[in-house]
Design goal:
Radius of gyration: 16 Å
Structural class: alpha/beta
Order of helices and strands: HEEHEHHEEHEHEEE
Shape: globular
Distance between the termini: 36 Å
Strand order of the largest sheet: 7-1-2-6-3-5-4-8-9
Oligomer: single chain
Largest sheet: 9 strands, mixed
Helix content: 25-40%
Number of helices: 6
Length: 200
């Protein structure tokens, strides 16, 4: 596990975290990182072995799919078979980070998709996540940093020590952030162009 032994400036802290996170992700490891919502466990969303590590760490049933983060609308065209472009108009109207369940996952680790081939994807605006995803050039897994069945931690200090010990790199950025955050909304996008709310 990587640790920073000295206090860095915010800019250096950010860049250092990006560098170490990329190295960890490229090696098939797990990161603990702040997202546009709560802290998450992340890995390469195209690497089934890395995804399996996330399930094992969370003690989560493999039948429960995980959320994927992307930084660009064009990525949806690459990783879903037939995205409905009307979803972009809908997302422009929401004020809360919103995860959308799409049909037809392609190019992602097979143990990420639901049994029906659906995949949960969120387009992020958060600076750290966008920088990391764009430089990694692949989507990231983002699942809440908790053991399955336990409450999702609102702040870094609330994360279970088992989770912290089980990842390969813990991001320094925003560890001290006490801004109230909560999990994203989740919707299922229907063929008729309407959303079904799964989690408001």
């Amino acid at each position: 596990m990587y640790f920073c032994s000295q206090k860095l400036s915010p800019v250096n802290d950010f860049d250092n975290d990006i560098t170490h996170s990329l190295a960890t992700l490229h090696s098939g490891g797990l990161i603990l990182y702040p997202t546009d919502t709560i802290w998450g466990i992340g890995c390469d969303a195209t690497d089934p072995a890395a995804v399996a590590k996330v399930y094992a760490l969370k003690q989560r049933a493999a039948a429960k799919s995980l959320i994927i983060l992307m930084a660009d609308k064009r990525d949806l065209l690459k990783y879903t078979s037939q995205p409905d472009l009307r979803i972009f108009d809908f997302l422009n109207t929401v004020t809360k980070p919103t995860t959308v369940i799409y049909d037809g996952a392609i190019g992602l680790a097979p143990n990420l998709a639901g049994e029906d081939g659906t995949i949960a994807i969120r387009l992020v605006e958060d600076d750290f996540c966008r920088h990391l995803i764009k430089r990694f050039r692949k989507p990231l897994v983002s699942t809440s940093a908790n053991l399955s069945g336990s409450p999702a931690p609102a702040f870094f200090t609330d994360i279970d020590p088992h989770i912290k010990a089980g990842v390969d790199y813990i991001v320094e950025h925003r560890r001290d952030d006490r801004t109230p955050r909560e999990p994203s909304a989740i919707i299922k996008w229907n063929p008729d162009g309407t959303p079904t709310i799964i989690r408001p």
